[in-house]
Amino acid sequence: MGIISTKYLLLDAQAKGYAVPAFNIHNAETIQAILEVCHEMRSPVILAGTPGTFKHIAFDEIYALCEAYSNTYDMPLALHLDHHESLADISRKVDAGVRSAMIDGSHFPFADNVKLVKSVVDFCHLHDCSVEAELGRLGGVEDDMDVDEESAFLTDPQEARRFVEQTGVDSLAVAIGTAHGLYTKRPKIDFQRLAEIREVVNIPLVLHGASDVPDEFVRRTIELGVCKVNVATELKIAFADAVKKWFADNPEGNDPRYYMRVGMDAMKEVVRSKITVCGSQNRLLLPAEV
Ligand SMILES: [Zn+2]
C-alpha cells in the first residue's frame, strides 16, 4: 500500500456517480479516527493538510504517519495538499512523495491564476501528481485564509471551460455558494450554475466548504458532477465538543488516551455520515486498480 494520486480515485467516482470525501487532518488521532471508519466502510479517502497543518506537524512526519497507516489499514491513501499557494512549496512536497495537490490562485485575476496553475500542472504531471485548482472564490474562514463576503465570487461557466483548457488541471474547485467554516444562515447553492459548469467542463469537480451544508444539497451537487467533497470544520467541532464534555464530566482527568478517544469517537460519527452522503462506501479501489 502507499500514497497515491487522487486522479484515479476521482475518475472512478466520476464514472460511477459518487464522491470521494476529503477530510482535513491535524495529528495521529484525527488520521486514525478517519481511517478506522474508512476501513470499516471500505471507502476511498483523501486526507488533506493545509499549509497551516504542516506548521503544526512537519510534512515529513505527517507523510510518514500516512504511509504507516496505509499499511496498518491495508488501504492506499491520497495525502492531499489543500489550499497551497506556491509552486516552490508544492514541488518540495511532491519531491518528498505526495501525489495530490491543490494550487489555490483563486485570489488572482484570471490570467495570473492560469499562469500559476499551469506551472504547477507542468511540474506535477512529471511526477504522477494530480492537481486541483479553484476558480471563483469561496467566502469564509479556513486556517490562515479569511475571505469576506465582498471578495467572494461565484465561478463563471465559460471562464471555467477556458481555465481547464488552458491549464490542463485534473480537477476544479467551484464556487457555487458554499463557504469555509460554519454558516450564519442556510447556504444558497447555485445548482443551475453547477449544471452549466458541468456541461462545458468534463473533469471532476470539487466542493469546498461542505461542513454544515444539508445532506440533500451535497447529494444534489454529486448528481451534478461533484466528485470530491471537502469536510474540515464539522470534524473539529465534533472532536472538540466531545472533549469539552468529557472534561466537564471528569474535571480531574488528564490521560489523553481517554479524552482523545472520546473526541475520536465523536469525529468518527461525522466521518461515517459524510461517507454515506458521498455514496463512497464499498468503493475502495485495490492497488491493481489505482
Ligand atoms: Zn477549501
Taking the sheet with the most strands, its summary is: 8 strands, parallel, barrel
Strand order of the largest sheet: 1-2-3-4-5-8-10-11
Structural class: alpha/beta
Helix tally? 11
Query: How far apart, in Å, are the first and last alpha carbons?
Result: 11 Å
Q: List the ions, cofactors and other small molecules found in this model.
A: zinc ion
The whole-number mean of residue pLDDT values reads: 94
Strand content: 15-25%
Note poorly predicted spans.
none
State the order of secondary-structure elements, H for helix, E for strand. HEHEHHEHEHEEEHEEHEHEHH
Spatial shape? globular
Radius of gyration: 18 Å
> What is the tally of beta strands?
11
GO cellular component, one term: cytosol
GO molecular function, one term: tagatose-bisphosphate aldolase activity
Organism: Yokenella regensburgei
Binding site for Zn(2+) 1: 83, 180, 208
Keywords, separated by commas or semicolons:
single chain; 290 residues; alpha/beta; eight-stranded parallel beta barrel; three-stranded mixed sheet; 11 helices; 11 strands; 47% helix; 17% strand; binds zinc ion; zinc ion binding; Aldolase_TIM
Textual characterization of the structure:
About 45% of the residues lie in helices and about 15% in strands. The chain is an alpha/beta fold. The protein has an eight-stranded parallel barrel with strand order 1-2-3-4-5-8-10-11, surrounded by eight helices. It binds zinc ion (ZN). Zinc ion binds near residues 142 and 208. Its EC number is 4.1.2.40.
Produce the secondary structure layout.
Blueprint: H1 7-16, E1 20-24, H2 28-41, E2 46-49, H3 53-56, H4 59-72, E3 78-84, H5 87-95, E4 100-103, H6 110-124, E5 130-135, E6 139-142, E7 145-147, H7 157-167, E8 171-174, E9 179-180, H8 191-200, E10 205-207, H9 215-223, E11 226-231, H10 233-249, H11 256-278
Parallel strand pairs: 1-2, 1-11, 2-3, 3-4, 4-5, 5-8, 6-9, 8-10, 10-11
Antiparallel strand pairs: 6-7
Helix pairs in contact: 2-4, 2-11, 5-6, 6-7, 7-8, 10-11
The structure holds zinc ion.
Zinc ion is lined by residues 83, 142, 180, 208, 230.
